[in-house]
Design a protein that fits this description.
Layout lengths: L1 E9 L5 H17 L3 E17 L2 E13 L1 H13 L3 E8 L17 H18 L1
Antiparallel strand pairs: 1-3, 1-4, 2-3
């Protein structure tokens, strides 16, 4: 079996039920092709580098699994047909060494960052 990583981006305004449904379908595909799912992580809503189908943000998911070539073909086919999936990317990591799981800081919404960036020049101007 080969090791794969897949990152897929969902529409940001999806409800929890729709997100769980997509996650269940992904895991169903993996199990039906005798694959093994190790991780399905929600990386949260992030700003996209460029708009995709008029969405400036997307909800990122990371999937780590083992499986064969038929599994990856079927998984990508289903992700491509789902209108709620904006983008996906699968990578074969069979030859790659295992990476330690890093604890990431919570995702800061871009609007909060922009508000902080706007506030910094105002503080600097006040100090002068």
């Amino acid at each position: 079996m080969r090791k794969y990583e897949t990152i897929f981006i969902l529409q940001p305004e999806l409800g929890e039920d729709e997100i769980k449904s997509i996650g269940a379908k992904v895991q169903e595909v993996i199990s039906s092709y005798n694959g093994e799912c190790f991780r399905l992580d929600d990386w949260g809503v992030r700003k996209l580098a460029y708009p995709i189908r008029k969405f400036a943000r997307g909800r990122y998911y990371y999937l780590r699994f083992d499986g064969g070539a038929e599994l990856i073909a079927e998984l990508e086919r289903r992700l491509r047909l789902n209108e709620k999936v904006l983008r996906y990317q699968s990578v074969n990591i069979t030859g790659e060494p295992e990476k330690a799981v890093e604890k990431k800081a919570p995702v800061v919404e871009a609007e909060a960052v922009e508000a902080v960036e706007e506030a910094v020049p105002a503080v600097e101007a006040a100090n002068e």
